[in-house]
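Reviewer 2 asked us to include a model.

Predict the structure of this chain.
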Amino acid sequence: MICSGHKGSSGLIFNIQRFSLHDGPGIRDLIFLKGCASRCKWCSNPESQNAFPEIAYNHQRCIGIIECGLCGEVCPVDAIKKSPGGKIKIDRRLCTNCGRCAEACAASALKLFGAFMSVDEVLSVIEEDSAFYWRSGGGITISGGDPLSQPEFVQELLRDGRARGLDTAIETSGYGYWEDVSRICKYANLVFYDIKCLDPKRHKAFTGISNELILENISKLSLQFPQTPIVVRTPVIPGFNDSAQISQGFLKSATIPVIASDSEAIF
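Predicted model (structure tokens):
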């Protein structure tokens, strides 16, 4: 299933990472969105997968429900319960992810991942670092999750960012409707594109989705946006795509020109 994303000029964001140096040229702000169609077994940002705000709980930080208990007091649906160890547990069947418990938690044991921000709100945060962009040739990179989960918001953010003189880039798996891919890439100066595996059965077994649409979209992208640099990223995952046999199969079956090396190709 392809997520159609949140409509309008606001997007669901779970983090803005400042001073990023590895996701495009220069010094950049990396904007992480929530929502992703993939369920990669090695996902480094699992909190970004679901397209709605979520409460996360770190039991090691928790003071205890008896010693503190503020989270339970403010919960409007009584979803905060006492755990056997005297701390808390969240009844996810009741929790509405409203975030009130996270606001009340003095120990920061509870955190709400995901907040809706308008394009102007995001750019206001970004432009606080504008001096670094001008000097280093940097800008903004939209990641996730996946930008294709919120195509309308990402298109507007990239368009308005470029209008303000920002260099723009996206990081995507390419799993989405071509109409969304093209509308976003129209305003991207650089595209980081994940190709995890070319074997369709292996890809689906480890990510939960087929790679057919991903490969179809990158072929269209290279043809219809020939002036836009595309950096292919392949995460090297033990037991998935790290053997010599799999690597040879990748190169033999590639239908797109591969110009670089082990885990990264540019075409």
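The chain has nine helices and twelve strands. Residues 1-8, 253-267 have pLDDT under 50 and may be disordered. We have added this to the supplementary material.
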